[in-house]
Write a structure and sequence with these properties.
With 214 residues, the protein is an alpha/beta fold. 35% of the residues lie in helices and 20% in strands. Helix 2 (33-47) packs across helix 7. The longest helix is centred in the C-terminal third of the chain and has 18 residues, at 195-212. The N and C termini lie far apart (41 Å).
Length: 214
């Protein structure tokens, strides 16, 4: 049995998610404002004594979706064998999800876009073209919050950053509890000087944690 066969038989989807939260950062810049915000959101989660894990996509080697469509049959990505297979189980086992990306050219980063595209394997499709589809993550009371950071102060300059995370998560079956756009921040770590933003980030974490508790 090859590696991809093993990945298919692990059964990433089927069991209900656990009451824990996964936070995913999409910034390539180490110790930047996105990293600081992610830490504060996670601090808020942990204040509610909910298990949480934070990961940075830059720490994983993975490729963008190649459109091979093997996942339509296999129900998991078998066209690529890379770091995404370390992330898939974390997603399926976590009822709460945090996505955070800085704005790169009016949109999410290339890392976050590639990650979101690789979630395509969680969809079911019928045989018509175009046809009906559903998500195997839906109906499981999954919750999410979205955070975006932009150097400019004008909402228009953030472009599609928020929507590029919200729309795929909604399609996958997540309830978006809140979106938090942060403007006018660029210098590395400068966001720590804004107490209101830090407080809001922690509040987001607490809100998400409370939402998945019984």
């Amino acid at each position: 049995m090859n590696t991809n066969d093993n990945l298919t038989t692990k059964g990433y989807v089927g069991n209900l998610p656990e009451q824990k939260i996964l936070a995913i950062g999409g910034s390539p810049r180490i110790h930047g404002n996105s990293d600081v915000l992610l830490k504060y959101v996670l601090d808020g989660v942990q204040e509610e004594n909910v298990p949480a894990e934070g990961i940075q996509l830059r720490d994983y080697y993975f490729k963008p979706c190649i459109g091979c469509e093997k996942c339509r049959k296999d129900k998991i990505c078998t066209g690529l064998n890379d770091g995404m297979h370390l992330i898939y189980p974390k997603i399926t086992k976590s009822q709460g999800l945090i996505l955070l990306s800085p704005t790169h050219h009016y949109n999410i980063t290339a890392w976050m876009k590639a990650f979101i595209d690789r979630l395509y394997c969680f969809y079911n499709f019928d045989d018509n073209r175009p046809g009906a589809w559903s998500s195997r993550l839906a109906g499981q009371k999954r919750k999410a919050v979205i955070v975006a950071v932009c150097e400019q102060k004008n909402k228009k300059d953030m472009g599609f950053t928020i929507e590029a995370m919200r729309l795929p998560l909604e399609a996958l079956g997540y309830e978006i509890l809140e979106e938090f756009p942060v403007f006018g921040i660029f210098d590395r770590g400068a966001v720590k000087k804004d107490e209101k933003i830090m407080t809001k980030a922690s509040e987001l974490g607490r809100k998400l944690a409370k939402s998945i508790l019984p």
